[in-house]
Write a structure and sequence with these properties.
324 residues, alpha+beta, Chitinase A, domain 3, three-stranded antiparallel beta sheet, 56% helix, elongated
């Protein structure tokens, strides 16, 4: 635990800020972590960054759901990051060579020859080079600490890899795949009598040996018309239930009866079928090793962070900085 004298000074500053006049108010402190603090502006910056990132990827109910979860975890994650950074510095970890290598790789990947050019490019994007480099260094320090304290302590035993394969076979079972061709007749703009006549006409032509691809190009009313009925390949579970049930009963080369769905009628031909199969242990071994490693890593990381927090001074002064 850090010296309490430092913490006392921080608390004194906080109390002083409350007593000062408006023009002299020190920025609000959200949390104290050992000798460091998290301020309201730091919290707001993290919130704004995550909000923009989430907004660029999601919308509607999914955005609302993930935003609520993200906002709930912001302060906890900031405290975790600060604890890791403090511990990395205490242990004297040095990532200067990694920073240099990362900078060189960034320049190489973006066809930038010098640091001056890199700084100008970042400025053009409104990014301060020194702040960006400092953030990179801090991220590398946290990763280096976790590698040293967590990753290197994890050992995988062949027996547990085999046991995982035996008891989680469903994870390594490849689903059946269907390659389909179709003719689609839409209910929109057609009455049932007209559709009945079309279905009978198409079925008779298929019975007499005409090619389904040519008939799809002639009759189909969906996107299938342009592709001569080629729907592509679907894995088990990807098709609408009504269509999948019909396909499951077909043998390769067979054509289904007409299938009615909400917006029209489908006639399906199973062109190819790849049966479901369980990957061999050798095929699945690397995937299993990654799964088991990540499970162990998550558990050990939680234990490490818990121990780190227990021996540190952590005081949350405002758990909800955005609530007014």
């Amino acid at each position: 635990m850090k010296k309490k004298t430092i913490v006392s000074v921080i608390l004194a500053l906080l109390v002083t800020s409350v007593l000062c006049s408006a023009q002299d108010v020190v920025e609000e402190i959200v949390a104290i972590i050992n000798d460091d603090i998290i301020t309201r502006s730091q919290y707001e910056e993290r919130h704004a960054l995550l909000y923009q990132m989430l907004r660029s990827q999601l919308e509607g109910e999914e955005f609302d759901r993930q935003y609520r979860q993200m906002r709930k975890n912001i302060l906890e994650n900031m405290i975790r990051d600060l604890l890791l950074l403090q511990n990395a510095k205490e242990k004297g970890l040095d990532v200067s060579e990694q920073v240099k290598l990362t900078l060189e790789n960034i320049k190489k990947d973006n066809n930038i020859e010098t640091d001056v050019q890199l700084i100008r490019e970042l400025q053009r994007q409104g990014i301060d080079f020194n702040a960006w480099k400092k953030q990179m260094e801090e991220d590398l320090l946290r990763r280096s600490l976790l590698f040293s304290e967590v990753d290197r302590s994890i050992a995988l035993d062949d027996s547990e890899i085999i046991e995982y394969y035996k008891h989680h076979s469903e994870e390594f079972t490849e689903p059946s795949e269907y390659k389909l061709r179709a003719i689609y007749l839409s209910l929109e703009g057609n009455n049932e009598d007209e559709l009945q006549l079309k279905r009978e006409e198409i079925s008779q032509k298929l019975t007499s040996g005409e090619d389904m691809a040519a008939l799809a190009a002639q009759y189909s009313e969906g996107p299938e018309k342009e592709s001569q009925g080629d729907l592509g390949t679907f894995k088990e579970g990807e098709l609408e239930n009504t269509l999948e049930q019909a396909v499951e009963n077909l043998k390769q080369g067979e054509i289904s009866p007409w299938i009615k769905i909400q917006n029209g009628w489908y006639l399906l031909k199973l062109e190819e079928k790849k049966e479901s199969r369980l990957k061999s242990f050798e095929e699945a071994k690397e995937e299993i090793e990654n799964k088991v490693f990540m499970e162990k890593k998550q558990k050990k990381m939680e234990e490490f962070l818990k121990a780190l927090q227990e021996k540190s001074y952590v005081k949350i002064l405002n758990p909800n900085p955005l609530d007014f």
